[in-house]
């Protein structure tokens, strides 16, 4: 028997089909050729069967899928505010406007307009960070891991960096502090134990080869029970007394105290700086609420060393990051404005009564297959581990023929995709992370998914 796959049409034959030829004439020909090849390969993988909708329709659909942007907006209905898989912090309107303003044309990224000569991108957010935090100096790079890498390279390369075993954390995506330290050229020296480290452990580990004391905030997990950690202030004091640099990897970058909203225990940037550590590193896209960035604050000598390290160029921030970060930081000049205008802070501090109002509106839009129940949201993004925020959820109960997994998949297939969570065989929608102007869109998508 002849293999049906031998009868599949050739690429040139399909390109000659009138509808396909019209696609190639009006769109990027290379894209259409790729779509034709992939459609044939899909048919070959299916045993040689032609697409049920016909070759031209299948090719047109594949062209549309290939032409669609691979990165696009989604609606976060999970209740996880800093959802790493969904891009973490949504930007403020001010940051978005700054992106558009700077991205649309040329900008003074490395040009000193007053002098009419070359400038430095490192000056763009420096003054604002110094103003907000009181630090002597500041440096912005492309992410927090890059900030730690530069600090270790500048302050500990060729020497020993001492860190507690309990702080050798994995920060996500299999990136681990020991690996970053090794890449920096510093030699890792572990002290203490997983659950208990004392000041005497750091003091005993100091040798003539010691260059740095590193403290890493355990921002994405908790260790409870028989534990002990050395405060940053005490580590900094030992470093100053022995002429050894100190770096605090703070993680999330909290600029305002969220304890009044039930989120306590996370050290703020100001508290970290007050400890006396030579340099403090943190993220721009977590609790700070800006774009992905790594921020280094500290003494003039430490930050200048980081700025002059060759790695600083490899991880430097681009004009769009700097524009969005500057706009975000500017909102912090007025605390009330920052809580209102920075989406992450607004979601974390929102009155639960307002969340319930959105839940009721969403429930009304969905109809009889849903109800409103109390629940919990999470901060996410490796911040405030274990903390829960009270919220109101819209719980969707599909008919028996429709499983929760199928309903969730249909929601992800909507435009824009809606990402929900499943618990106890129900699909849950958390209005805390659903923006007010998205409620009607989500309700319509849920109704369509239930009816489909």
Question: What can you tell me about this protein's structure?
Answer:
The chain has a seven-stranded mixed β-sheet with strand order 5-11-10-9-8-6-7, sandwiched between helices. A five-stranded mixed β-sheet has the order 2-12-13-16-15. A two-stranded parallel ribbon has the order 1-14. By secondary structure, the chain is of the alpha/beta class. The model has no long low-confidence stretch (mean pLDDT 92). The two termini are 41 Å apart. The chain is built from 19 helices and 16 strands. The chain folds into three domains: 10-67; 75-83 and 346-451, Aspartate Aminotransferase, domain 1 (Alpha-Beta Complex), CATH 3.90.1150.180; 93-337, Aspartate Aminotransferase, domain 2 (3-Layer(aba) Sandwich). A hairpin with a 2-residue loop joins strand 15 and strand 16.
Summary of the model, kept short:
The protein has 452 residues and is of the alpha/beta class. The protein is 41% helix and 17% strand.
Biggest β-sheet strands, sense, barrel: 7 strands, mixed
The tally of beta strands, per DSSP, is: 16
Low-confidence stretches: none
Oligomer: single chain
Question: Mean of residue pLDDT?
Answer: 92
Roughly how many Å is the radius of gyration? 27 Å
The CATH topology assignment of the largest domain is: Aspartate Aminotransferase, domain 2
Under CATH, the homologous superfamily of the largest domain reads Type I PLP-dependent aspartate aminotransferase-like (Major domain)
Q: How do the strands of the widest beta sheet line up side by side? A: 5-11-10-9-8-6-7
Named at the architecture level, the CATH assignment of the largest domain is: 3-Layer(aba) Sandwich
Structural class: alpha/beta
How many domains is the backbone divided into? 3
The number of helical runs is 19
Query: Outline, from the CA principal axes?
Result: globular
Fraction of residues in H or I helices: 40-55%
CATH class call of the largest domain: Alpha Beta
Distance between the termini: 41 Å
Strand content: 15-25%
